[in-house]
């Protein structure tokens, strides 16, 4: 049925043309913007996801900048540490040369002073954008990532880089209120370096009248004596034989009462002694260096240790070393302190205390650091040779410990290196090794941190690329498909327009029936 009031064909053609125009508009938008989802109305869910991911991409771009800044800062610190190591190695060569007496030590000291000043200059200048990582102890955080949880919350992650203090600052002794003196103990029952540099004695009391042989060994040298019916004669012969060996720092004497007194004036070297008496002859032990070896008279084999002269200051094997822990050795009324830094151990404390005492240049005082092979305890050995003739020089030895201090620098003791004397040159040879190790450790720590930052930077770059690819797969338009679709829709639009035009002519055809 035809009607002049309702043109259903025109309405169908119009709706079809509207649909074609809408699709054409969408396709043209994709081509012009390059996106299939350009706004929330296109696809709200996909658009929301893409915007979150775009925000993350922008965040990772800032993180990449942060990592680049951190990498440059650490690179400067690493280079400074390596330079300090090279300069200290040169200084060690000068110190080794100063061990020879027939050299001009004053000129060598001048070279050492120049190297020391250069080290200070390097440490002071090693900053990037105002941040110096070879001074101070506070850690530096480098922004390394953004971590998005399943609930949508975001947390920042950091790479923590520990500063490596290569300054020569002595630090500040603590007063935090926690007594640490239990962590540092003078091992000997004698709590002072003897003011006359007395040696450690070992008394062996011989008894018996049998004419049996006595096999004796001291300092790795063995000999045999025959017991005389007069024990004093036996002891005299033993003393003469021992003294004839010419052992450095070791002497023997008879007191006329059957007692052989052995004396060790070596600073840090003890001597093992063994014997074997036959028959009814006996030996009793009184060891003034190690009372645990005291023994009553006995026949047969025996042994003892002729202890070195130095005093032992043993550090705890169980105590935790914290930043700011302060330890002190007092010699002749003068305090020598070392304040631990972050991550240090009792080995560092022992070496620091040795460096501090050596830097005091106490006349006749020498030091050494050793580790007990059984317990693992680190020990500072302090010796006095009795050459200080200053009035009132008692060489009293004391120790103390307290928390809450400001850490000593890694180059602590560098300013006190002095090779113009025999004792100073000897002390410098040991202390320069500690300084070199500190600078090597610093360079290694910065190298490790730089490697981690570099790896993270590469990862962030790849992660950013992956996120961009993911966003593109969500919202980017397929330009080949859009181009083909555009051509098809343009043809459909032309046909739709013609169809609508034809449908609109239908009422005119009905009107012609009434002419």
How would you classify the helix and strand content by structural class? alpha+beta
Strand arrangement, largest sheet?
Answer: 9-10-6-12-13
Are there runs of 5+ residues with pLDDT below 50, and where? none
Question: What is the CATH class designation of the largest domain?
Answer: Mainly Alpha
How much helix, percentage-wise, in residues?
40-55%
The number of domains is 4
SSE topology string = HHHEEEEEEEEHEEEEEEEEEHEEEHHH
Mean pLDDT: 86
Report on the biggest sheet. 5 strands, antiparallel
Q: What is the correct CATH architecture of the largest domain?
A: Up-down Bundle
Rg, alpha carbons = 44 Å
Cα separation of the termini: 20 Å
Q: Tally the helices: what do you get?
A: 8
Full CATH superfamily name of the largest domain: f41 fragment of flagellin, N-terminal domain
Plain-language structure description:
With 515 residues, this protein is an alpha+beta fold. The protein folds into four domains: 8-34 and 477-514; 46-160 and 440-468, f41 fragment of flagellin, N-terminal domain, CATH 1.20.1330; 170-186 and 312-408, no CATH class; 200-308, no CATH class. 42% of the residues lie in helices and 23% in strands. It has helices at 8-33, 44-98, 105-125, 231-244, 346-359, 422-475, 479-504, 506-511, and strands at residues 127-128, 131-132, 140-148, 154-161, 184-186, 200-207, 213-218, 221-226, 250-254, 259-264, 271-277, 282-287, 295-298, 300-306, 311-315, 326-331, 334-339, 365-371, 378-384, 397-402. The strands form six sheets. A five-stranded antiparallel β-sheet has the order 9-10-6-12-13, covered by helices on one side. A four-stranded antiparallel β-sheet has the order 5-15-19-18. A hairpin with a 4-residue loop joins strand 9 and strand 10 (259-264). The mean pLDDT is 86.
């Amino acid at each position: 049925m035809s009607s002049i009031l309702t043109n259903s064909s025109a309405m169908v053609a119009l709706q079809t043309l509207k649909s074609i125009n809408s699709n054409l508009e969408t396709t043209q938008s994709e081509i012009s913007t390059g996106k299939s989802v350009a706004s929330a109305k296109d696809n709200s869910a996909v658009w929301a996801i893409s915007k979150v991911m775009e925000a993350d991409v922008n965040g990772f771009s800032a993180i990449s900048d942060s990592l680049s800044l951190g990498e440059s800062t650490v690179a400067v610190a690493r280079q400074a540490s390596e330079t300090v190591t090279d300069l200290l190695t040169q200084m060690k060569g000068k110190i080794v040369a100063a061990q020879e007496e027939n050299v001009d030590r004053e000129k060598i000291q001048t070279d050492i002073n120049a190297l020391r000043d250069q080290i200070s200059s390097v440490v002071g200048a090693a900053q990037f954008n105002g941040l110096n990582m070879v001074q101070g102890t506070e850690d530096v955080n480098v922004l390394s990532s953004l971590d998005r949880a399943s609930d949508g919350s975001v947390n920042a992650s950091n790479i923590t880089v520990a500063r490596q203090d290569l300054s020569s600052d002595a630090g500040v002794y603590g007063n935090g209120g926690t007594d640490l003196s239990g962590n540092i103990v003078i091992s000997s029952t004698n709590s002072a370096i003897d003011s006359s540099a007395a040696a450690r004695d070992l008394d062996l009391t011989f008894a018996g009248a049998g004419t049996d042989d006595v096999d004796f060994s001291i300092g790795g040298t063995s000999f045999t004596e025959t017991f005389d019916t007069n024990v004093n004669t036996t002891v005299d012969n033993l003393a003469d034989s021992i003294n004839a060996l010419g052992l450095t720092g070791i002497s023997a004497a008879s007191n006329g009462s059957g007692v052989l007194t052995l004396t060790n004036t070596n600073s840090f070297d003890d001597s093992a002694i063994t014997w074997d008496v036959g028959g009814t002859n006996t030996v009793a032990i009184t060891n003034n260096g190690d009372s645990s070896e005291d023994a009553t008279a006995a026949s047969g084999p025996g042994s003892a240790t002729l202890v070195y002269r130095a005093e032992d200051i043993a550090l705890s094997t169980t105590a935790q070393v914290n930043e700011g822990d302060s330890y002190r050795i007092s010699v002749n009324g003068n305090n020598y302190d070392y304040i631990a830094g972050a991550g240090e151990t009792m080995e560092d404390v022992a070496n620091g205390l040795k460096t501090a005492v050596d830097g005091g240049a106490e006349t006749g005082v020498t030091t050494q650091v050793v580790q007990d092979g059984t317990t693992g305890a680190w020990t500072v050995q302090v010796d006095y040779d009795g050459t200080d003739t200053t009035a009132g020089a008692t060489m009293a030895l004391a120790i103390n410990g307290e928390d809450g201090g400001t850490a000593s620098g890694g180059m602590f003791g560098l300013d006190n290196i002095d090779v113009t004397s025999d004792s100073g040159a000897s002390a410098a040879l040991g202390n320069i090794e500690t300084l070199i190790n500190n600078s090597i450790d610093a360079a290694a720590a910065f190298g490790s941190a730089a490697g981690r930052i570099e790896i993270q930077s590469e990862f962030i770059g790849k992660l950013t690329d992956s996120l961009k690819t993911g966003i593109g797969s969500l919202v980017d338009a397929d330009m080949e498909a859009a181009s083909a679709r555009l051509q098809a829709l343009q043809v459909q639009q032309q046909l739709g327009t013609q169809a609508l035009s034809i449908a609109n002519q239908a009422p005119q055809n009905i009107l012609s029936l009434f002419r």
